[in-house]
Amino acid sequence: MNQLASKLLVSFIFLVECTARTFPVPLEFPIKAGPPTFPLACEWLQRISLQLNPNATSVRSGQHAVTSAIRSLDDSTLAWLQLNELMEPIIDEYTSALCPFNSSMEPLQWHAWKKAMDAPIAAPHNHKIMVQNEAVRVLDVYAPANSREQFHNHRRFSFFVFYGIDMGMTDYGPDGEVRGDSPDWDGKSKPRLRVIWSNPEWFHAVYNKKSGSNHLAPNCPLENSPEDCDGFLFRIELNLNGSYRYQGDETQP
User: Fold this and answer.
1) What is the pLDDT of residues 74-103, one digit of tens each?
2) 180: confidence class by pLDDT, cuts 50, 70, 90
3) From 148's CA, which of 61, 104, 138, 184 has a CA 20 to 30 Å away?
4) β-strand partners of 169
């Protein structure tokens, strides 16, 4: 094979690998907060900014950090994840937000975070690390229909990108209390493509209802490649320069 043919073959392979998945519905962003875990973009960005710099007075450092983390994922990786057409609209959404800095914002509840309870460690049957680098970690989140996840937590700020029908879920807190519940799919509504911003999420486990077995549920089995799933639920976690503390692991007061 001559040099020109070799270059053309490489270019062809790259184009095939980076073929964008198109979705038949628009990308949706939150219009209502679900405190304390699921805020609107401005609160999320402010908390990220304060994580990076406790003296921050604007959300600009949070916007920059999130954008830098997203752009650490190259085009071929995003294409493999089926997300390459979604990242720029996501960046546009939070960078265009006009966010006044709320100096009276209350801090999140203190928790004794432990690395052993991190989702891929404590709940490996429900969380698979798809991609990881110094800036970001992408998890596939899954639980079979009519089953509950293993209890775990999410120490990092993150955002969800998911596509699928309205799969019913029940979220259980550390004492087995129901923190949230949604009705199962009605058998009629079309799949949706959504983003949800997330603060660190304390010890919990989600029960997936019957529709979790539907191929259009946002529930991609961990053994599958993203291209083999119609629906999916990916959690994109931000490392933020390793600025998280795990107080439950500390040996000094």
Assistant:
1) 999 999 999 999 999 999 999 999 999 999
2) very high
3) 138
4) 208
